[in-house]
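User: For a reading group we're discussing how well predicted structures match intuition. Take Transglutaminase-like domain-containing protein. Before you show the prediction, I'll give you the sequence so everyone sees exactly what went in.
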Amino acid sequence: MREEEIDSLIRLLDDPDNIVFNHVEAKLLSLGESAIEPLETAWEQSFDPLQQQRIEDIVHKIQFSQILSSLELWAISGSFDLLEGLIIVHKYQYPDGDEQKIINQIEDIKREVWLQMHYSMTPVEKIRLFNNVFYNIEGFSGNIRNYNDPQNSYIGQVLDTRKGNPVLLSCIYSIVAQKLDMPVYGVNLPKHFILAYTDNYQTNYEENEVLFYINAFNKGQVLGKHDVLSFLQQLKLPGKKEFYLPCSNISIIERVLANLLAYYKENSSPKARDIQRMRETLASIQIDRNGL
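Assistant: Thanks. Here is the predicted 3D structure of Transglutaminase-like domain-containing protein, as structure tokens, for the group to look at:
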């Protein structure tokens, strides 16, 4: 569709007739990303609140459709890159966010650790070095004061502020660690996400393959299996393997989305519907994969 035709459609967005509006909206949505720039230009030039609101809604629908498609493709393709999944979630809130900036920030942290690391170190020695760089030099810490703030779940914000919740701190920690050939993976522990340092890179973990656990929210505190089981007992939960063995990247993104959903629901935000749709997208792929 030519630019003039798009502009003609946009000019009709202030029409009070819902039939006209629904037709125009459908045409603009069908154009996808190519409609965003002219829509944003029209918003800047408009003095009509109705037209501005309709433009905002259409732009959001186009961008959200792209987010769902990206998330679905990431999951179907194997969800191997956790960072990619986190960037997709980040783009939901910050569609114009700089993806390369996030990647560069991760690489900068990796480089800082790598410069000090000797590969003859034991796993515990590596973690002590890693913790010193991650918390003391890079300045990461748990956002205790604003624990439930949704910004704690968007990786770009956590990298900028150096504050996050247990899941995002663990994600950044494990992504950097894996780039340094340290087998550190997320553990979907109820009420508190943690990490496991394993002794191999297999996907089907056995209990004796976890050397120790790491609490990324508490300055990288090293924990034993007995600590994790004791925590489960305090919660009156059974010691299921899924609670103390490494989990999939899809499970991690589902946990990130669950935190966002809880916040947006509590605050009656319309974003709750979007987050729920993202969760349902992942859930449907999990069901297909399990043959249920």
